[in-house]
């Protein structure tokens, strides 16, 4: 979950900023990095899982309340238009059949709490279908949560790829590698770059292609498109697989506010010592 936030921070300064020439060796945590909706909604889910640990029936209502409450404290971070309405304007926020990648960017805390694959699926669905109830929205969130869970319990990349191919068959294509797809990837008029199906497999591939935590997020952000969200989704898996280097773990809180750090601290009690490698 911290990996998701770090990915969001690193990608944040490149979002909506088409920089085809930007270099591979960009500053990782640059002073212009900032947290965006990806971090906030991830933290809202973490808060919900802490609160509802022994009361899973309450998850759906609490997660809606928590997402809205945190969003109201930090309204200016770049929301999608329909999700903004769901957060700020709807009196009774209802699912709106979304397959935007907002479902997958926020789901990673599930991977640290679930005790089985069944629980990954169940929790992932409960925190997703309150807004993103399109089958692709639910699938995207489950894929990220499952990849991070499998990494957390010590599965190999080969195994994780095999499992992820069931969600996104393109991950089985040797041509679907970050360096190969980058020239053809990025913003497009159809908005595919902000959908689950147009960004979740890319985030998973960035992790599978990577050599370490930082390298994974660099690959994801370097790919382009929805850089903060791809960084976030990839970072959530990379954290579970590699852990976070000490220097990065020390620096990233400087970019967050006190209320967010407090929730991260509470959640760390739940996730403590769960990495199995
Ligand atoms: Mg964002």
Label this structure with key terms.
ADP-ribosylglycohydrolase fold; binds magnesium ion; mainly alpha; 277 residues; 57% helix; 15 helices
What does the secondary structure layout of this molecule look like, with pairings?
Layout: H1 2-12, H2 37-51, H3 59-73, H4 81-88, H5 102-105, H6 109-113, H7 117-128, H8 135-152, H9 157-165, H10 178-181, H11 200-209, H12 213-223, H13 227-242, H14 246-251, H15 258-271
Question: How would you describe this structure to a colleague?
Answer:
The chain is 57% helix and 0% strand. It has 15 helices and no strands. The structure holds magnesium ion. Residues 36-38, 78, 228-229 line the site of magnesium ion.
Major pleated sheet: none
Termini separation (Å)? Answer: 17 Å
Count the DSSP helices.
15
What is the chains' assembly state? single chain
Name the CATH superfamily classification: ADP-ribosylation/Crystallin J1
Stated plainly, the CATH topology is called ADP-ribosylglycohydrolase fold
Tally of structural domains = 1
* CATH class category label: Mainly Alpha
Question: What share of residues is helical?
Answer: 55-70%
Q: Which regions are unreliable across 5 or more consecutive residues at pLDDT < 50?
A: none
């Amino acid at each position: 979950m911290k990996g998701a936030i770090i990915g969001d921070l690193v990608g944040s300064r490149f979002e909506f900023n088409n920089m085809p020439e930007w270099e591979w060796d960009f500053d990782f945590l640059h002073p212009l990095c900032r947290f965006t909706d990806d971090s906030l909604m991830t933290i809202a889910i973490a808060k919900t899982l802490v609160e509802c640990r022994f009361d899973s029936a309450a998850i759906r209502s609490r997660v809606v309340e928590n997402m809205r409450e945190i969003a109201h404290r930090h309204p200016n971070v770049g929301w999608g238009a329909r999700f903004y309405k769901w957060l700020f304007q709807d009196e009774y926020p209802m699912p709106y059949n979304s397959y935007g990648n907002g479902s997958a960017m926020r789901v990673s805390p599930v991977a640290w709490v679930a005790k089985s694959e069944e629980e990954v699926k169940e929790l992932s669905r409960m925190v997703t279908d309150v807004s993103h109830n399109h089958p692709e929205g639910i699938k995207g969130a489950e894929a990220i949560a499952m990849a991070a869970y499998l990494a957390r319990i010590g599965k190999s990349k080969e195994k994780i790829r095999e499992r992820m191919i069931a969600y996104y068959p393109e991950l089985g294509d040797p041509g679907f590698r970050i360096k190969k797809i980058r020239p053809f990837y990025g913003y497009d008029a159809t908005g595919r770059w902000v959908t689950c199906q147009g960004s979740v497999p890319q985030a998973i591939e960035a992790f599978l292609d990577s050599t370490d935590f930082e390298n994974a997020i660099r690959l994801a952000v370097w790919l382009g498109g929805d850089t903060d969200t791809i960084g976030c989704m990839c970072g959530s898996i990379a954290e579970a697989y590699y852990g976070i280097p000490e220097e990065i773990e020390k620096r990233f809180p400087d970019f967050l506010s006190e209320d967010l750090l407090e929730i991260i601290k509470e959640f760390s009690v739940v996730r403590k010592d769960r990495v199995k490698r």
